[in-house]
Design brief:
Number of helices: 2
Number of strands: 10
CATH superfamily: 2,3-Dihydroxybiphenyl 1,2-Dioxygenase, domain 1
Oligomer: single chain
Strand order of the largest sheet: 1-4-3-2
Structural class: alpha+beta
Domain VOC: 2-129
Protein name: VOC domain-containing protein
Largest sheet: 4 strands, mixed
InterPro entries: Glyas_Bleomycin-R_OHBP_Dase (IPR029068), Glyas_Fos-R_dOase_dom (IPR004360), VOC_core (IPR037523)
Distance between the termini: 22 Å
Radius of gyration: 15 Å
Helix content: 10-25%
CATH class: Alpha Beta
């Protein structure tokens, strides 16, 4: 796997460190007074301080469900996705947009999914597949 890099805006670096580090379990990498890197399942996520950051609008639609655009996240194998879903569901401080569910059930590309917001309002989607060959199935 080749990791990708995503730079995204956050309103507060301390609350971002807590959310990505403690809530999602990301290792924290390099940082400065204006940004911090996280390892999100092997991908480099760079949170950049932008106090005026605003939440993504919920104006997209997938399988009849409204989803925020833009959003980002990770594609996981089902066991890893289930561990994350269980970890998040055990907390009472998660800003849920869509609780864990299965989308496209019985169809090619069947996937588990969940949507949450970080403290800055960034929307994250985590998908779970039984096999990575299903990611682009149609």
């Amino acid at each position: 796997m080749t990791p990708f890099h995503l730079a995204f805006p956050v309103r507060d670096l301390d609350e971002t460190r807590v959310f990505y580090g403690e809530v999602l379990g990301c290792a924290i990498g390099r940082s400065s007074e204006t940004w911090v890197d996280f390892d999100l399942y092997g991908h480099q996520m760079s949170a950049h301080l932008r106090p005026q950051a605003t939440p993504a609008a919920s104006d997209g639609k997938v399988d009849g469900i409204v989803v925020p655009i833009p959003h980002f996240g990770a594609v996981l194998l089902m066991d890893d996705w289930q561990r994350l879903a269980t970890r998040l569901e055990a907390r009472d401080d998660i800003d849920w947009l869509e609780r864990p569910m299965v989308r496209f059930k019985g169809e090619p590309g069947e996937q588990a999914t969940l949507f949450i917001r970080d403290p800055s309002g960034n929307a994250l989607e985590f998908k779970g597949f039984r096999s990575l060959e299903q990611v682009f199935a149609h």
